[in-house]
Amino acid sequence: MKKLTRLQRILISAILVVTLIGSLMLALRQNTMTNIGYSAWTYIKYGLIDYPITSLSNMISDVSNLWHVYDDNVYLNEQLATQRSYETMYQDERNKNRELEKLLDLQGGMEEALRVNCSVLSRPVQNWNQSVTLSAGKNQNIEENMLVTSSEGAVGLIEHVETTTSQVRLLTSPELRNDIAIQIALDDGTNVEGILQRYDTKRKAYQVNLFDHDVTVANGQQVATSGKGGNYPAGVLIGTVVDTVIGDDAIVSTIYVKPVSNIQSFNYVSVIGMKKSA
Predict the structure, then answer these.
(1) Rod shape-determining protein MreC beta-barrel core domain spans which residues (predicted)?
(2) Based on the domain organization, do 136 and 253 belong to the same domain?
(3) How far is CA 20 from CA 9, 15, 31, 36, in A?
(4) pTM passes above 0.85
(5) Distance of alpha carbon 266 from alpha carbon 117, whole angstroms
(6) Residue of 233, 237, 241 whose CA lies nearest to 216
(7) Which residue intervals of the chain are DSSP H helices?
(8) Which domain holds residue 229?
(9) In this structure, is residue 172 part of a structural domain?
(10) What are the average pLDDT values for consecutive 10-residue runs of the chain, which has 278 residues?
(11) For the stretch 136-164, what's the b/e string if a residue is b when 16 or more beta carbons lie within 10 angstroms of its beta carbon?
């Protein structure tokens, strides 16, 4: 009989060992110790492999979801900003249309007056209560000292005229050069006249001196132009009486008149003057 070589003996021994181990594992498959070992391996595998991979996957998914939420928020904020911008533009245009409608409603009266409608080109922020520039000038027959009215009433006087533009000195300006002749309609059907002299910044009202000190003037009465001493007609609203000053002799000498409501903000005006006779 031929002897086995060393290599053959090693292979046979390895086969026997593997067969033995396989038989033992098969025999012990239902054994409690085998179940414990399998459970331990399951926990180790879950803790070292499955859980970290699952956690990493969930984290990546959460980050991705957050990024999508961020993108959505950015988009929604942009849309809201655009919508607010459109709403602001719409409100602004609607206010301008209402202002124009009121201005056109005033066209019916004062047929004897020259009236030129135009828009406000600029109003300096630093001198907001002093002047504005209009889009009409000599080409539209604008002249100095013509009265400028908003949709609510008088707001200023033409101070300087160029070919296509003109400068307005507002009635609220401390540099108003010309006094404005006014009148107040009384309950008895008569009028009391006076002069608008200046704007009182503390009271936020015009100071008006009356010619007749014996009349009774009450708060809430309207003050209008008298048409005397200026290049503009009578009947243009100046404001409303808000206070009266009574002297020591119980005589009313000065009243204070609140300006028209939109004197701080207007976009369109009418420039009113007297028509020249042919």
Answers:
(1) 120-272
(2) yes
(3) 16, 8, 17, 22
(4) no
(5) 13
(6) 241
(7) 6-27, 32-45, 51-105
(8) 109-274
(9) yes
(10) 64 70 54 52 61 72 73 73 63 66 63 84 92 94 92 92 95 88 88 92 93 85 87 89 76 85 90 75
(11) bbeebebbebbbbbbbbbbbbbbbebeee
